[in-house]
Fold this protein.
Amino acid sequence: MIGIGIIGCGAITIYRHAPEFSSNPHSKITGYYNPDRQKAEILAARYGGKVYACCQEMLEDPLVDAVCICTPNKYHAALSIAAMEGGKHVLCEKPIATTIEEGNSMIEASERTGKILMIAHDLKFEYAHKKAKEILLSGEMGRILSFRTAFGHGGPENWSTDKSMNSWFFKKENTGSGVMGDLGIHKTHLIEWLIDDTVEEVKAFSSSRDKKLENGDFVEAYDNSICLLRTKSGIIGTLTASWTYYGGLDKSTVIYCSNGTVEIYNHPEIPLIVTKNTKERSCYSFDIQSRSGIADSFINSIINGTPPDIPGEEGLRALKVVIACTRAYEENKTAEVGG
């Protein structure tokens, strides 16, 4: 059994990582650490394991083989590096870090210690995305010409454990890049994987449109971003990230190809639609996906000694695009994605 220590007991731990690690037949949650001890105690009572007094106590526990880091973004790098240097494998929530330098340091620590570093970009494991990737790789859709992709919902105050405007997501020092670091980064990672290409140049508009503190001031972190992306091969597309989609969730992606169009989550009832220029239309439905696949993939890598499905390098690529989009807006220019 792989012993798992979880740092951070917010919504992502409650709804994803704790239940998925506890139900994996090859892992056992050893314990939890959270600044608000009560949140850790609730999870310990539900899934078993102890409550650690501090992170260091967890990292010194020989029963902990791997650590799942679910803290505000600004702590990802320091905790991941400390865990790997302490002999633990690391599953880190997205984004990998808040700066490129931090991300590079995490990857270097993984290489130096020989410990796995995986970033929790779950969209790659969704059935509709996996099938779309298979279709695009087959070549039947021809050349990819352009795309549009979006990820938006009503805001983190509606689902986080702190259901208020005091949520850490709204403080720029915690997130680094607002809604782009929360939702947009999922799509920068996904789109490069789907189209098998890398984004080289970006333009962007970002703004705090509606999220306000109790005193009436807009939150520090941008709640909306719209970005224009150009890839190495010349594919162009748009990426939208929003915390103000109050009518419901939108995580659609549409890829326009020389032989037709691939629509993912663009229809309310059909997850994947492929329409060819011959008017042939294929609709794909999938079984309900009860697990994200993140915990299972991470555990498999540890057991089999294989590279993770989402290594630190992929997480860093996604972060570089997000940082370039932020720079493009704030400096009012076309920005190149850092190497």
User: Anything to note?
Assistant: Residues 198 and 303 are 31 Å apart (CA to CA). The chain has a mean pLDDT of 95. The first strand starts at residue 2 and ends at 7. The chain has ten helices and 15 strands.
